[in-house]
Amino acid sequence: MRPHISYSELASYANECQWRWKLDYLEDRRSKIYSVHFDFGTAIHEALEKHYTRNNPITVDEAVELFKSKFSELTTENGKNYSKPLSVKDYTSLLAGGENIIRRFDECEELKNAEVVHNEFPLFEDIDLHSDDKMKFKGFIDVIIKGKDKRGKTVLWICDFKTCSWGWDRDTRSDAWKHHQLFLYKYFICKKFDIDPKQVRTAFVLLKKRPPKESSPIEFFPVSAGPISVQRSLDVLSGNILHMIENEKNDSFKKDRSFCTSKYGEKCPYLDTTFCTKDT
Q: Which end of the chain is more exposed for a tag (fewer CB within 10 A), N or C?
């Protein structure tokens, strides 16, 4: 069995195709779906990480140039693998959207008035499986900030950046699986540093490529992370790990044909290869 697991790996196993998870992680083949949306997110994350930091932050102009350079590099390198060619119009629109996000990032009140504590903070912590099996939880927290709550008390915010088009609808905002990521980050941070969970809050920071007119491209979206919610996320984590271990022993990973094509239209790299054919 693998020595560690990340949130994205957990979500891949539980919500997508177990067979692809097996090929990706157990057999270490690491397939990749190419998307301009993924590349946009990578470029934005890198620029904001260097701008919104406590150690030698780069200027807004420098962050914009870093974003444009990285996005150009990624689209040049990966564009031939996109499901459809990237048009000049779409490329220009995404460049403008990214620049708008960076230039207006500091307008977000919750972020502007907080102190950055850590960027891309690494987690590699033991998971209590209540069994002889051993595994660690691996992750990177986009940013941890220190601020004040409504009562003036100092609290830590664990934040994850999410790029999106115009924002999140009601279903996405209430998606339990998205929340699991923040709740697990909170649990392992509190455990690692022996912090009172009451002093730690969680939030997504939505980075909107095409925000509605007259609205900000940055939205600070708090998610309540009480003890019951956090424990539920831990149960989901440990339960799926034990399920993975059992499936590996029995070699009983299922194929889910609804994920042969991703939501962005890209085909699974294993489909119609020796690793996965439609008639098996």
A: C
User: Residues 6 or more apart from 260 whose CB is under 8 A from it?
Assistant: 267, 268, 271, 278
Domain ranges of the chain: 32-107, 108-251
Instruction: Determine contact, residues 31/17, Cβ cutoff 8 Å.
Output: no
| pLDDT mean values, one per 10 residues, the chain (280 residues) | 94 94 92 91 98 96 98 97 94 98 96 96 95 93 92 94 97 97 98 97 98 95 97 97 94 92 79 82
Nearby residues of 179 by Cβ (< 8 Å), 6 or more positions away: 223, 225, 229, 233
In whole angstroms, give the CA distance from residue 4 to residue 136: 4
SS3 for 113-155 is CCEEEEEEEEEEEECCCCCCCCCEEEEEEEEEEEEECCCCCEE
CA 237, CA 10: separation in Å to the nearest integer? Answer: 7
